[in-house]
Amino acid sequence: MATSSVRKAALIEAANRPIRNVAFPERDGRAMYPSEFYGEYVFTTKDMAKALPKPVFADFLKQKRGHQTLSKPTADAIAHAVRVWAMDRGATHFTHWFQPQTDTTAEKHDSFLSFQSIGGGEYAAIDAFSGSQLLQSEPDASSFPSGGMRSTFEARGYTVWDTTSPMFIQKAPNNTKILYVPSVFISYNGEALDSKTPLLRSCAAISKAAVELLSLISPRSVTSQPPAAQVVTTLGTEQEFFLIDRSMYAMRPDLKITGRTLMGNLPPRHQQLEDHYFGHIPTRVLSAMSELELELYKLGVPLKTRHNEVAPAQFELAPVFEEASVAVDHNLLTMELLHKVAHRHGLKALFHEKPFQGVNGSGKHCNWSLSTDRGENLLEPTVKPETNYRFLLFLVAVLDAVHKHAAILLAGISSSSNQHRLGAHEAPPGIISAFLGDHLAEVLNAIEERRGLKTFSVPHFQSVKLGGTVVDLKVSSLPNITRDLTDRNRTSPFAFTGNKFEFRAVGSKQSPSFAVTLLNAAVAQSIREITAALVEQKGNKEFPSAEDQLEVIRKYIIASKPIRFEGDNYSAEWVTEAEKRGLPNIVSAPAAYDELLKPLHSDMLTKHVAILTPTELDSRYHILMERYAKDMLVESRTLLSMTQTQVLPAAFEHRKMLADSATGIESLGMKPTVELEQLATTSDLLEGLSKSIASLKALTKTLEDNEDVKQQAHAARDELAPLMQQVRIGVDGLEEIVGDKFWTLPKYTELLLTV
């Protein structure tokens, strides 16, 4: 079968693919409510309380809260209880599930089946799971990224149960299941080899700093409630992605190898009519999303929203916020399961930030806030934020942190894939700024200028004073609506959205761990500095007065003011303005990584907040640089292979057809004007492409031979990327004119408009 026929057959297969139907859970002849089966595959605290003796359960809670270590008897009791629970539901194996520095997860399965000696050289088969097996496992550490912390011959590493994240079971083939034990991953000497350990440290650091600040401004002597004992970082991760037909995906080596298309032109119609966003979800996609939700609900993942995104074949899922470490686990679990479920529906999930040039890219919007153990959101402005000094203190702490450490926040979201999205006109640029909205901006300005608040006029509606929330729609059949204190700014990388900040710049393919870790660390340091400023301001008084708090708030409003921007972050004027304010504009991922080692940021991470050791920070820097360079070189090799083995042969066939046609027309005594024009255009494109290919080959070889990863990464960004784009321009020019019957690769029309 000719290649063009294979492409045609794939299109027919995609068009005729049947819809997969999955039965919704039923009970007593009726469809169950999601709340009835939510979390049924999770070994919850409630399940543990039922299965364990009260003293053992009490010991576990003390350990979970950091008040004591987990004893062997307690670990053995929990291991026995969770094994029985899991095996009663069909589990045969267990695994320590962890997050190496690859933006993915890792697992090694061990069976519950064990063998016990009964004497005389005989053994009896038993099912067992000990406390030591629950607490730790020993995967090979040498093959995971370590940034030089581990040598290849030093293989030992440990996974350790993370008691803050619940265990759960997942389906395996043949109707069996596996018990998953969320874990951290450390080296033989105790260094953090994973993404989760620093995240947990940063959560602990921000909790300690926030509790100290709360205790200072709300001492027990003046409040009826005891001060908060813990402050948790909360996180809700909106996940964007593309779903394309699997048969189309299978015929694109660039998508399979790199996650994005390295060549291809936009179809005549894509997203320019703005009709896909929030539109009707395609039937196949809705079927896949429904099955995914069923599985995730059983795993305790609180998915709330699903909808079409801006680009064709682009979609979004969003959960309710949770404690940050659990939210990260659930986000990675969502991505893993989406891959599996999409496969069952003949679809392929693409998480690359920019899989298709020219249309909207995908992000992972991280909705971040702080909450006390009493459930109080510390970033809730309330009706009168101007007098809510607790809110204002935490607000200016966040602004101060983002202002001082914007450069490393960029490092946390920079990658070879996200660089294609950042700065494009659907995502925040490489300048970090914070958006508050008119109302909160006015509150801070009024405090800074020591004046009263202004009254706002809402066009076409009613005059609304700051703090007012009702909007009259002037239509008698419609009710009045409640209006938030702030509007949304989709161009802002760090926007306040009611009672949280939305960190919009995180890439869709990235784990949220590193970005949130850096944000937590920076905010923890700023909270500590504000606490120290309050202590100095109050002098000999027992606690800082309202005037003392207001003075410190004013000081930090002024200091952090350059980071606040209420306008269009995509505009050229903002780039100029940001430069005047002294804000970093770092458009290169390797340059952003370099910021991690600058004293301002490295001292904060390793000395002041101390969530990483110098060795751990240095290793992460080298891992990021090495990963960037490798990603770029893989893309270059893939582009060269596809161009030489698929694009050029197709162009040669097209040129031969034109030449034969021109010869045939000339033999009839006519002038082959059109054929000769097309032949010249094709030849010119081929000649230019051939030169670009030769240059790309040479540069790729030079970079591969360079063992300095820093030089390699910077050269890949500054030299390799432009040359790859040059090759792409040549290829895309040929795609526009080469006969469709010769073109072997599915085009954007087929990739984006087939689901």
What would you say about this model in short?
By secondary structure, the chain is α+β, with helices and mostly antiparallel strands.
- Percent range of helical residues: 40-55%
Q: Name the shape in a single word.
A: globular
- Tally of separate helices: 23
Q: N-to-C terminal Cα separation, in Å? A: 25 Å
Mean pLDDT across every amino acid position: 91
Query: What characterizes the major β-sheet?
Result: 9 strands, mixed
Q: What layout of secondary structure does this protein have?
A:
Layout: H1 3-16, E1 26-27, E2 30-31, H2 34-37, E3 42-43, H3 45-51, H4 54-64, H5 72-88, E4 91-97, E5 109-111, E6 113-119, E7 122-127, H6 131-135, E8 136-137, E9 157-161, E10 167-172, E11 176-187, H7 196-217, E12 231-245, H8 246-250, H9 253-258, H10 283-298, E13 303-308, E14 314-319, E15 322-323, H11 324-344, E16 347-350, E17 364-372, H12 389-404, H13 406-413, E18 434-435, H14 438-449, E19 455-457, E20 463-465, E21 470-471, E22 481-482, E23 494-496, E24 501-503, H15 513-538, H16 546-560, H17 572-581, H18 589-594, H19 599-608, H20 614-667, H21 673-705, H22 709-737, H23 748-752
Parallel strand pairs: 4-11, 18-23
Antiparallel strand pairs: 1-2, 3-10, 4-5, 6-7, 8-9, 9-11, 10-11, 12-14, 12-15, 12-16, 12-17, 13-14, 17-24, 19-20, 21-22, 23-24
Helix pairs in contact: 4-5, 7-15, 10-11, 12-15, 12-16, 13-15, 14-16, 15-16, 20-21, 20-22, 21-22
